[in-house]
Amino acid sequence: MSALAVICAACGFTVLAVPGLRFSALLLLCLAAFCAALAVLGRLGKRRARRVLLALFGAGFVCFAVLEALVVSGADGDGGGERVSCVVVLGAGVNGTEPSLMLCTRLDAALAYLAGQGDIPVIVSGCQGNGEDISEAECMYRYLTARGVAPERVWKEERATSTRTNFTCSRALMAARGIEPTAPFAYVTNDYHVYRAGVVAGVPQARGVAAKLPRSLYFDALEVNYFIREAFALANELLFRMDLDL
Prior knowledge:
- The chain is an alpha/beta fold.
- The chain is built from 8 helices and 7 strands, in the order H-H-H-E-E-E-H-E-H-E-H-E-H-E-H.
- It folds into 2 domains: 2-73, no CATH class; 79-212, HUPs (Rossmann fold, 3-Layer(aba) Sandwich).
- A 5-stranded parallel β-sheet has the order 5-4-1-6-7, with helices on both faces. It has a two-stranded antiparallel sheet with strand order 2-3.
- The longest helix is centred in the N-terminal third of the chain and has 27 residues, at 47-73.
């Protein structure tokens, strides 16, 4: 166990130096601490405490596996193949006035989905955050209209600060523009976020559309990091419904 603790700690500190993988690094460091605790308890002869710790870890791992399976189940969301009343694009980071890679993938997925949906409206949802020169909604509006979407079809929602407010503010905008509360609508977000976003939306008429990162060694590692992190975010949502965007 001592050797495993050292290996996990070394891997954790190594991964910590890679941009975007902080959560995975912290998880590896926690695993290192767990292995070190088991090693110490073993040397002290605390067999009962060691068994309790192992049992708790096993129960936690089973819960994680169930949650991760749910997260993965939404990763191929395609909107359900039916006509919808509108499309909501959930905001992500903006670099100055340019969309981040994460936001670009969402916008490109939205464009692909819109191609088969006629002239339905698009709600772009997101406020202006730290380090952003314009709101996420404004950035998305510019991106979509520059690629042929008629400006009058793109409705800006600039108050949302989280996934939950993305939906509450967007649904209020839908109601104000005459869309029936029970009408199905699609929402676009990254693949790892589709399932939890649907839980946050809390309505059966919401249809998830998954955006995916480009394929490369780094982005594949980033995807794994996000999928693991999302299981913990889903646990938070199911247990506490705290308004966090992990």
